[in-house]
Automatic annotation (TrEMBL), chain A:
GO CC terms, sorted: plasma membrane
Family the entry assigns: Belongs to the binding-protein-dependent transport system permease family. MalFG subfamily.
Spans traversing the lipid bilayer: 12-34, 78-99, 111-133, 139-159, 190-211, 245-266
The name this protein goes by in its record: Arabinogalactan oligomer / maltooligosaccharide transport system permease protein
Residues making up the signal peptide according to the UniProt record: none
InterPro entries: BP-dep_ABC_trans_perm, MetI-like, MetI-like_sf
Keyword check for Transport: yes
CDD domains: TM_PBP2 (cd06261)
Organism: Anaerosporobacter mobilis DSM 15930
A Pfam family that the UniProt record links to this protein: BPD_transp_1
UniProt GO molecular function: ABC-type maltose transporter activity
Automatic annotation (TrEMBL), chain B:
Keywords, alphabetical: Cell membrane, Lipoprotein, Membrane, Signal, Sugar transport, Transport
Keyword Transit peptide found: no
Protein name listed in UniProt: Maltodextrin-binding protein
Membrane topology of the entry: Lipid-anchor
Record-level Gene Ontology MF annotations: carbohydrate transmembrane transporter activity; maltose binding
Automatic annotation (TrEMBL), chain C:
Highest classification ranks of the organism: Bacteria, Bacillati, Bacillota, Clostridia, Lachnospirales
Boundaries of every ABC transmembrane type-1 domain copy: 70-287
Gene source species: Anaerosporobacter mobilis DSM 15930
Membrane-spanning segments: 12-36, 74-97, 109-129, 156-178, 266-287
Name of the protein this chain belongs to: Arabinogalactan oligomer / maltooligosaccharide transport system permease protein
Family as reported in the entry's similarity comment: Belongs to the binding-protein-dependent transport system permease family.
PANTHER family: ABC TRANSPORTER PERMEASE PROTEIN, DIACETYLCHITOBIOSE UPTAKE SYSTEM PERMEASE PROTEIN NGCF
Length: 281, 441, 295
């Protein structure tokens, strides 16, 4: 009994060491950015630099807040991400549900068609969307950008969630149907809780996509007060000649941190209703 | 029964969609209002901006009403701020407000917004080499339609030429840049060589690649930084008839000659070479005024020479490209804001603005009278650029130039970094360049 | 009754389909339209339909360089996908080991590369890791007494460098997908398997993989497409204007970019886009089989 326990302990210890190494190696480029951001105002890179900072100052972070409308960008990023999440997920959940639950002619073809459409490089669509939005007066509007993002992520979300919905045994629904639940009730009361991990995972993907997108953001939004975080960062620091490394890296770290906070917070909801409910498929 | 259910679901859906759309709209409207509160000058979002353009129409008749002019740029924000402050200060009586907005990837942005009177800018501030492309696209108005340029006789002729495409002037030059030989006075030993061969000998003697110390560093695989050699050898990247010259013998000789230097100039990436110089690991760098603020921060004892002071083996001086930074007017803005634009164009050529730019950012002003100022005349860097201007070759501004950068740099990288044979690579990339130019049509 | 049943799913699809038509389908059709015109710098506003001339010219671009790019793209996609799925699977399984208390922290830290905008990550790698003078790898090389190495100047090292970066950027996504999928595997199976004396390998091959295959298949298929059309990494790492590194590594997309898009000829580049799109469709008919199984 005790040897088994020791064996397990050793296993866990090895695993912990393994993950600490993996995390460290994975974080090296980030640590590099962090070191640059807290190392004063050297202005550029340095050959002396080690991975861990030798001096520590937060003035580059302060400078980002002082010189750039960082909080405004943050708000814009929030509006864009949440707006996109609501629309893309709302549309995709019902569509994915239908793809998973209804049998109809041409279903496979439609799914395949969606996949192929998604293969068209998005950057090529920019010009066409620009023309369309100009006519619809959606240039420089957050709603316009939200529609672009939602459209871009919709196919992905449908595909991704359909896979999960397929794993939810149809017997559960049939049982509820006998109890007199409508399709709408089925979706909200039964399917959504069961598919919660899938929904969270997909939402996070949508969120990160919007959070990090910069090309559409800088093209379709016109002044620096309406940029998103990634857009503002790109706009101000994209080319070698005008980049201030310490400020750039400080801003980059600050752009990424909210995502991690959100990610850390939602993880406890990622436990499936399926396993919790103990239903066997 | 079932029918009604799905109908209800459908209705709910429509409601959801409707409310979402409503939400979004409200959101963006709210944003607009907060924006305009923040900065009353910036008119950007749909309805407000059309109102403002209408207003602007009326303004031309009554001069007391304020006019706002938006300028897009993709340059140094400190320089743009200097220009913006100067013009706004000067035109405060005329109630003209100029706003400089940074747009990364300005060329691509102007392709989309160049003729968009609702969302696009009124003017743009950029280097002159993309002028031909914008002019051919038909988004630019000749500046001579807006302002009488004959009054601007103080401008350096070279800079005016650079701003002229097919005999029409599309830009007002403000300042210009050339590459310079910048060195660390504490590291450089002995006298500065006057020939490139002597410079090479110095480099051989003072470079230790293994230890990471260099005599001279240069972005040796970019077209702009190799142009001094190519032009000096009598070669060309593209001539004025849009003929690519990558496999001309003179160009190839220049590239071969440059390769010798490149082997002693580190990797040639911008970040690498500037850091080497700023950390005193390189005694000299070939670069422009944009490097100065970083160099000063690093506390380097900076000395400056004109590239024209080095003679090539054939007796010619090194002849860098000159890049003229100027301001152009977009066609759509002329109808509604002509008078205000004329005032801005006039103000931007002021001697005082030139002096201010020279003092704050080491820009070499286009206005020759600015050099009469004692402090400007004493600015080593500005003077070196003015000196170089005599031999510098303005970057070609024909649209075909935009297709040349890629093949030229590929050629340089192939020769300098991958060790390919010059003759073979030159033929390949000449072919590429010809195809690229043909593809434009 | 029967006809209504046919319509029902389409009511569910309507909102998504409208959105997709506007944002995805319309641009493709519009690109198709532009490809039939002579829109370029010299005919920016006064362009007109010129028929299939652009296609004729675009097809001429299918030369040896293009074939090489196609070849590179396939190796790129295949290698990346295999490594990505295998590594992500192992890490995800490790993260789900019962008793691993810090797994939430590890998961969050592992997500960091994904939380950075792509251009920032690529820049950091180019300057911080691969740089010849200051890059971390070269610092390690030098301290080991080896010479400096330029990772991006030759095609093979550049390919590996791009691939490592792509894995770094894409793994968090895959880990999260597989981790999410693992949540739906019923723990009871493992318990009974353990009682039967099954080892780690057996449990994974007979329980875990079959259970999550269906869930992660869409994500894997989607990622395959993303990898296939990956542009940023190769372009920003090796081909960026002003900092070419000397490697001539090209995928289909970067090849098209260099050979059509820099020309500012929208008609021609649209034709090239449509042809590439058709190539992707043809290629995915291969994946079609895999898709058939899943649907």
């Amino acid at each position: 009994m005790s040897t088994k326990k020791i064996k397990k302990r050793i296993g866990l210890f090895t695993l912990n060491v393994f993950f600490i190494i993996i995390c460290f190696v994975g974080l090296v480029p980030i640590l590099y950015a962090f070191t640059l951001s807290v190392s004063g105002d050297g202005g550029a890179l340095t050959s002396k630099m080690s991975i861990l900072p030798t001096s520590f100052t937060l003035k580059n972070y302060a400078a980002v807040f002082r010189e750039k409308p960082f909080l405004l960008w943050f708000k814009n990023s929030m509006v864009l991400s949440i707006g996109t999440m609501i629309i893309a997920m709302g549309f995709a959940i019902i569509a994915a549900y239908a793809f998973s639950r209804f049998q109809f002619r041409g279903k496979r073809k439609v799914l395949l068609l969606l996949l192929l459409l998604n293969a068209f490089p998005q950057i090529l669509s920019m010009f066409a969307i620009f023309r369309l939005f100009k006519t619809l007066n959606l240039i420089n509007s957050q709603m316009g950008l939200i529609l672009i993002y939602a459209g871009s992520m919709c196919i992905f979300s449908i595909w991704n969630m359909k896979g999960y919905f397929d794993t939810i045994p149809i017997e559960i629904e049939e049982a509820s149907k006998i109890d007199g639940a409508s399709n709408g009730q089925l979706l909200t009361k039964i399917i959504l809780p069961l598919a919660l991990p899938a929904i969270i995972v997909t939402s996070v993907m949508v969120l990160i996509f919007v959070w990090n997108e910069y090309l559409f953001a800088t093209t379709f939004l016109l002044n620096d007060k309406s940029y998103s975080l990634a857009g503002g960062l790109y706009q101000l620091q994209a080319d070698d000649y005008t980049r201030s490394w310490p400020m750039f890296t400080a801003a980059a770290i600050m752009v990424s941190t909210p995502i991690l906070v959100i990610f850390f917070a939602i993880q406890k909801y990622m436990v499936s209703g399926l396993t919790a409910g103990g239903v066997k498929g | 029964m079932k029918k009604r259910r799905s109908f209800a679901l459908c209705l709910v859906l429509i409601l959801i969609v409707g409310s979402l759309a409503g939400c979004g709209k409200k959101n963006s409207n709210k944003d607009t209002s907060s924006n305009s509160k923040d900065n009353a000058v910036e008119a950007t979002t749909d309805d407000t901006s059309t109102d403002q353009t209408k207003e602007a129409d009326e303004q031309t008749t009554e001069e007391t009403k304020p006019v706002s002019i938006t300028v897009w740029h993709d340059g140094n924000e400190a320089i743009m701020q200097t220009i913006q402050d100067y013009i706004n200060n000067k035109l405060v009586e005329d109630k003209i407000t100029v706003t400089f907005e940074k747009k990364t990837g300005l060329t691509d942005q102007l392709k989309l917004y160049g003729n968009d009177s609702n969302n696009g800018p009124d003017m743009y501030f950029y280097a002159h080499d993309s002028l031909g492309m914008f002019a051919e696209m038909g988004i630019l108005s000749p500046v001579t339609d807006v302002v009488d340029t004959s009054a601007m006789s103080d401008l350096l002729p070279m800079t005016v030429d650079a701003c002229t495409y097919k005999d029409t002037q599309y830009m007002i030059p403000v300042y210009f840049e050339t590459l310079l030989f910048m060195y660390n006075k504490d590291l450089w030993e002995g006298d500065m060589p006057t020939t490139t061969d002597a410079l090479y000998d110095y480099m051989v003697a003072h470079t230790d690649t293994k230890a990471g110390t260099y005599a001279v560093v240069n972005q040796h695989s970019t077209a702009y930084n190799v142009a001094p050699y190519i032009n000096g050898f009598g070669g060309y990247i593209i001539d004025k008839d849009a003929k690519a010259g990558l496999n001309e013998q003179a160009t190839k000789d220049a590239i071969t000659y440059n390769k010798k230097f490149a082997d002693l100039e580190a990797d040639g990436d911008y970040n690498t070479v500037t850091t080497l110089f700023n950390e005193s690991k390189a005694a000299a760098i070939i670069g422009g005024p944009w490097l100065v603020s970083g160099i000063n921060d690093a506390g380097i004892n900076l000395g400056i020479k004109s590239l024209a002071s080095f003679t090539l083996p054939n007796g010619n001086a090194l002849a860098p490209y000159s890049g003229v930074q100027g301001i152009g007017v977009l066609k759509h803005a002329v109808d509604s804001k002509k008078e205000a634009l004329a005032k801005v164009l006039t103000a931007i050529t002021d001697m005082d603005l030139g002096i201010a730019l020279a003092k704050t950012a080491n820009c070499a002003p286009s206005n020759t009278t600015s050099y009469d100022d004692a402090e400007v005349a004493a600015n080593e860097m500005v003077v070196a650029m003015k000196e170089t201007a005599a031999t510098a070759v303005p970057m070609p501004n024909i649209p075909e130039m935009s297709a040349m950068w890629g093949p030229t740099e590929s050629l340089l990288a192939a020769v300098n970094k991958s060790g390919e044979d010059v003759n073979k690579a030159a033929d390949t990339y000449q072919e590429n360049a010809i195809t690229a130019i043909k593809d434009m049509q | 009754m029967k006809s209504k049943k046919k319509i029902t799913p389409w009511i569910y699809f309507t909102p998504a389909l409208i959105l997709i038509s506007v944002i995805i389908v319309f641009p493709i059709l519009y690109t198709g339209y532009i490809s039939l015109t002579n829109m370029n710098v010299f005919h920016w506003f006064d362009y007109k339909i010129i028929g299939f001339d652009n296609y004729q010219r675009a097809l001429l671009k299918i030369d040896s360089g293009f074939i090489k790019a196609v070849f590179t793209t396939f190796i790129w996609t295949a290698l990346n996908m295999v490594i990505q799925v295998v590594v992500a699977y192992l890490i995800a399984v490790g993260l789900n080991t019962p008793g691993l208390k810090l797994s939430r922290l590890y998961k969050t830290l592992l997500m960091f590369p994904w939380a950075m905008p792509a251009y920032v990550s690529i820049l950091l790698w180019r300057v911080g890791i691969y740089n010849t003078e200051f890059g971390l790898l070269n610092k390690i090389f030098v301290s080991l007494g080896l010479g400096k190495m330029n990772f991006l100047s030759e095609n093979v090292p550049a390919f590996i460098a791009c691939m490592v970066l792509n894995l770094w950027m894409a793994l968090p996504f895959m880990i999260m997908m597989i981790d999410g999928a693992l949540q739906s595997v019923d723990r009871c199976y493992y318990e009974s398997a353990t009682l039967d004396g099954a080892g780690f390998l057996v449990k994974n091959i007979y329980i875990t993989i079959p259970s999550i295959k269906q869930i992660i298949a869409p994500a894997v298929i989607m990622t395959t497409f993303t990898t296939f059309k990956q542009f940023d990494i190769i372009y920003l790492l090796t081909l960026q204007k002003g900092s070419l590194t000397g490697s001539t590594l090209q995928t289909i997309i970067t090849y098209a970019h260099q050979n059509a898009f820099v020309s500012n000829n929208y008609g021609l580049s649209s034709a090239v886009s449509i042809i590439i799109f058709l190539i992707i469709i043809v290629c995915s008919l291969g994946t079609n089989r895999g898709v058939k199984e899943e649907v």
